[in-house]
Design brief:
With about 110 residues, the protein is an all-beta fold. Helix content is about 0%, strand content about 45%. The chain is built from no helices and five strands. The protein has strands at about 30-40, 45-55, 60-75, 85-90, 100-105. It has a five-stranded mixed barrel.
Length: about 110
């Protein structure tokens, strides 16, 4: 059974027994939700998501493109490869650097 996490997204078709899954476990979602590109999927149950955003430059009254990397927990019921566009949501801190969890894959990479 898939739990309602409070966001209008497509839940994963697979099921998992992961305790830290927001759909099948007990991990609550709160705060921000971000969209970015999966840069690295090498770690166990963790991905690195890069996101780009405009940053204002006050002197020239223009914007420059800036990027940041966010570590996110990857539940076993969601399949992500490098280059996929994913949606991540904030949760409680799971480790030193992980405070986000992957909730949806928006676009698959053509690799």
């Amino acid at each position: 059974m898939v739990k309602n996490i409070g966001l209008t997204i497509v839940p994963p078709k697979r099921t998992c027994e992961d305790e830290l899954c927001p759909f099948h476990g007990k991990l609550p979602i709160r705060g921000k939700s971000l969209v970015g590109t999966a840069v690295s999927c090498k770690a166990h149950k963790m991905i690195v998501v890069s996101r780009e955003y405009p940053r204002p430059v006050q002197k020239y009254k223009r914007y420059e493109r800036s990027s940041s990397k966010v570590h996110a927990f990857l539940p076993t019921c969601i399949d992500v490869q490098e280059g996929d566009v994913v949606k991540i949501a904030e949760c409680r801190p799971l480790s030193k650097t992980i405070s986000f969890v992957v909730i949806e894959v928006l676009a698959k990479s053509g690799i």
